[in-house]
Amino acid sequence: xxxxxxxxxxxxxxxxxxxxxxxxxxxxxxxxxxxxxxxxxxxxxxxxxxxxxxxxxxxxxxxxxxxxxxxxxxxxxxxxxxxxxxxxxxxxxxxxxxxxxxxxxxxxxxxxxxxxxxxxxxxxxxxxxxxxxxxxxxxxxxxxxxxxxxxxxxxxxxxxxxxxxxxxxxxxxxxxxxxxxxxxxxxxxxxxxxxxxxxxxxxxxxxxxxxxxxxxxxxxxxxxxxxxxxxxxxxxxxxxxxxxxxxxxxxxxxxxxxxxxxxxxxxxxxxxxxxxxxxxxxxxxxxxxxxxxxxxxxxxxxxxxxxxxxxxxxxxxxxxx
Amino acid sequence: xxxxxxxxxxxxxxxxxxxxxxxxxxxxxxxxxxxxxxxxxxxxxxxxxxxxxxxxxxxxxxxxxxxxxxxxxxxxxxxxxxxxxxxxxxxxxxxxxxxxxxxxxxxxxxxxxxxxxxxxxxxxxxxxxxxxxxxx
Lengths: 321, 136
Hints:
Radius of gyration of chain A: 24 Å
Helix content of chain B: 25-40%
Number of helices of chain A: 16
Structural class of chain B: alpha+beta
Radius of gyration of chain B: 19 Å
Order of helices and strands of chain B: HEEHHEEEEE
Strand content of chain B: 25-35%
Oligomer: heterodimer
Number of domains of chain B: 2
Low-confidence stretches of chain B: none
Shape of chain B: globular
Low-confidence stretches of chain A: 311-321
Largest sheet of chain A: none
Shape of chain A: globular
Mean pLDDT of chain A: 90
Largest sheet of chain B: 5 strands, antiparallel
Helix content of chain A: 55-70%
Mean pLDDT of chain B: 94
Distance between the termini of chain A: 84 Å
Order of helices and strands of chain A: HHHHHHHHHHHHHHHH
């Protein structure tokens, strides 16, 4: 019991450790942009015109007999996109980000109400949850530029637990999503997910379902050893994700790994999971540290430029007299 | 926020679906080479069959795999409504539809013919016409 309490205390201390406001702001900007793009380009109006006989609702949409009507969908979409754009810019982010999330939720639910759960936007929605009540607009925002906050805080300035916990909670969600994806494979298929011909049959079936044979899918499926290797690498990558919680440097391996995984699924199976991949990159990269590093390079180059010996222009005919 | 994380973990560990919280079952089952697939085809006045190109239809029609999987469990009126929705969508794209047939197909994807799987074994299960749905 004491060990459990100690573990809970350590987890709490980790979760509520101080954080950089710029990293939280970077999440608002990045995730807000992805949300705005998804909500602006989603097939919601097409879905609204779906015949009721094909409606297979999930979650709260079970309260309806059919998809929401087109007029409601258009209003929701306009409100959600406008709010997401404003939140991204940092205009009243504490109101506009929750508004974008709430207005966007039924739209995203519609995409999963045709028979299959689409996980593409789910990670984005879940990662945004800790940001909804957080002070995401305190920096790198239009509001901050107008003087209500610090427009350009230096490294270490304004560091506080209120900026730290939303970023760490989002990191837990990303790590959990991939870990649970791997865990589900172990629980439902066991080692056979790697050791059987599972991935070969998935890739053959996917290729056969496409209009033209998919050469990338066939390349892997035709080589059993390669299919086992890809399956093992996938499972290992997914189960390794919690490492990033204790060793943030693990992101150097996990982020390229997950980009490779989603790129591979897209090429071989035609399934585009870019919002999931983008969410992982946005959450796991320390944008504040990156900004500091780039700032140092800029400073270095500026110094180098100012110390460069300048040609003596005093004798130049174009030199001002 | 602790409650959110707790529910997120519970859904993940136990594979529960409480959308947007989810059990993260992506490709979780081990596939076998022999796969059962349902197929819907339209029949024109001359009796020619053409598979319904669900990918070319609007997004609301893209859940065909799951709708076909659950077709047997639908009431007759619901089955007729599903067939009517598909037929109307194909007609709206210029297709001629006198009937919709639903086949149960069994494919062994490990049997390859060139770059494609061997043709599946096919069995007619239902025929939908204006008169209603008739089991084969």
